[in-house]
Amino acid sequence: MRIAIIGAGVAGLCTAKVLLQAGHEVTVFDRTPDVGGVWSRTRRYPGLTTQSPMAQYSLSDFPMPKDFSEWPTGAQVQSYLEAYAAKFGVDKTLRLNTEVTAAHATDSGHWTVTTQDGAEMFDRLVVANGVFCEPAIPHYPGLDEFTAAGGRLYAGSDFHDVEDARGKHVLVVGYGKSACDVAVAISRVAASTDVIARQMLWKLPRKIGGILNFKMLMLTRLGEALFPYRRLRGFEKFLHGAGNRLRRAMLNSVGSVSVRQFGLRKHGLVPAGHMEDIVRGAIGLATEGFFEGVTDGTIAVRRDRTIVRLSTGQAELNDGTKLPADLIVCATGFRQGVPFLTEDVQRRLLDERGNFLLYRQILPVDIPGLYFNGYNSSFFSPLNAEMAALWIAADLAGTVNLPSAPEMRRAITEQVAFMDTVTDGHHCHNTKIIPFSIHNVDEVLSDLGLNIKPRIRAAHWLAPVDPAAYRHVTPALLERLRSAKSLPSPAEPIPLFSEVEQSDAG
Questions:
Q1: What are the angstrom distances between the C-alpha of 312 and each of 164, 269, 330?
Q2: Do the beta carbons of residue 303 and residue 268 sit within 8 Å?
Q3: Which of 379, 138, 137, 154 lies closest to 282 in space, CA to CA?
Q4: Cα(389)–Cα(13) distance, rounded to whole angstroms?
Q5: Per-residue pLDDT for 494 more than 60?
């Protein structure tokens, strides 16, 4: 088939790679001049790094270079993705500096994609534009007066040069990872750096107690199992049943360590609730140097505060405090949007609250020929995107044994309701699956009958999940697609593992 992919970030690139290997003709559109999505040089703010260590942020069959930082920089990730595209021939499919302005389904079931270069017809469309594509910037009364007097306001992803903050009074709005990252970089050159935090979030140390890498706790299957999934299996039933006290103690002990390690009580920065509540807001990795800056006074955190008005050279907060302000950086999140799709498609794709209604975070039930990838933001985003790409390739070949349309709609409704409950609605319109990253991988691969062996899954209960353990899944699927005419029926065992192993894996 001839397939269009919108977006050249992680999800778009790995989808293109898998579909090329499956024999399709692929075109990847991206409005930026380089690959990488959030890692593009057009979007990298100073201080940007991954939240997961490089081993966990790698694609299964393309490890990151050993000389990269443990938490790679934005520039390193972009160069890695550029090398990935070249390695697998995806670079030849790219249409960079090309923005998709419209995409609509034709009466024949194909898709017309329109860019500044004109319209083209494709058999299928994959949307991989990313859930962090459009910055969400608050509206501030007085902004015109502020900017007329020389003040400047940026979205975090549009602030690229730390020298723009030299000698200035800077306000960083937000308390997520990007806000803390950019605040550290800015504080080294600014006259003052104030972080305006509407809500306190729990921050995890990169090294718990200064010794234990956080991935040993939170990037394991056990770490994921500490949070209640909608269907509990195996040891999860014990953790959320008879072992609930132990589970809570394990999570909250990390919170206690964070309070001591970062001096949160001394600085008045202890979040409300307990560490086990982190999934209800966001799981944030502490930026190196952030709390050190709070301690030495180069960073001031204004907790439970918002900006209510701007004026010449200053910002007024909701408690009446007035702060000097020459530069404001809004690290206030993103909108999840697909403005290039027609209103009719968007009505079928989104619910009344703007949640994306996607089966397995991939398939809109009532829109033929349309897929999504990258709408499963997680600690293992490359791995999740790669497994979703395999699911798409299998479905294009008609080898995914899908439930009925009503059953898929019911599953989507249950997923949204569950995420509403466990995250208190903070799931980016059903595009964030943290902390259930590996549950999503398991479900996607179970649909394909390609789950990795139980002994490897068992090893990942105590050791960090290693994406390289999944490197054989793509060749297994491609071999199956090549011999599709001899495939067993969906009711028969998949001939990768024994029946016992399959039962254990599921």
A1: 18, 30, 18
A2: yes
A3: 379
A4: 10
A5: no
At 283 the pLDDT is 63
Reading the block at residue 87, the tokens are 């390695």
Question: In the structure, what pLDDT confidence band is assigned to residue 504 with cuts at 50, 70 and 90?
Answer: very low
Is residue 503 left, alpha or beta, with left meaning phi > 0 and alpha meaning psi from -120 to 50?
A: alpha
pLDDT of residue 73: 96
Stated as kind and residue range, the H or E segment containing 27 is strand 25-29
d(CA 200, CA 175): 7
Which burial class, exposed, middle or buried, applies to 459 when counting CB atoms under 10 A from its CB (0-12, 13-18, 19+)? middle
CATH 3.50.50.60 residue ranges for the chain: 2-133+336-505, 135-201+282-334
What are the start-end ranges of the H helices in 339-453? 343-349, 381-396, 405-423, 437-448
Domain 2-133+336-505, second-level architecture? 3-Layer(bba) Sandwich (3.50)
Exposed, middle or buried by CB within 10 Å (0-12, 13-18, 19+), for 234?
exposed
* Spatial strand order in the sheet of 94-95: 94-95, 25-29, 2-6, 124-127, 370-372
Mean pLDDT of 183-206: 94
Identity of residue 158: D
Digit-coded pLDDT (tens) for 301-325: 999 999 999 999 999 999 999 999 9
pLDDT at residue 3 greater than cutoff 50: yes
Q: Which amino acid is at 168?
A: K
Determine the Cα–Cα distance for residues 218 and 276; give it in Å rounded to an integer.
12
User: How many other CB atoms sit within 10 Å of the CB of residue 390?
Assistant: 25
Q: Is 33 exposed, middle or buried (0-12, 13-18, 19+ CB in 10 A)?
A: exposed
208 vs 107: CA distance, rounded Å: 57
Q: Could you tell me which CATH number the domain at 135-201+282-334 has?
A: 3.50.50.60
Answer whether 259's CB lies under 8 Å from 270's CB.
yes
Mean pLDDT for the stretch of residues 223-250: 92
Q: Are the C-beta atoms of residues 58 and 382 closer than 8 Å to each other?
A: yes
In the structure encoding, which two tokens stand for residue 212, read together? 């234990």
Length of the chain, in residues: 506
Is residue 390 a contact partner of residue 473, using CB atoms and an 8 Å limit?
A: yes
Element housing 301 (H / E): strand 300-303
Which amino acid makes up residue 249? A
Fill in the amino acid letter for 270.
Answer: V
pLDDT of residue 503: 32
Q: Which residue has the tokens 């791995």?
A: 383
- CB neighbour list of residue 40: distance below 8 Å, 6 or more residues apart: 9, 32, 33, 34, 78
Burial of 250 (0-12, 13-18, 19+ CB in 10 A): middle
**Gap between the Cα atoms of 109 and 192, Å rounded:** 57
The pLDDT assigned to 284 comes to: 76
Q: Whose CA is closest to 140, among 314, 300, 353?
A: 314
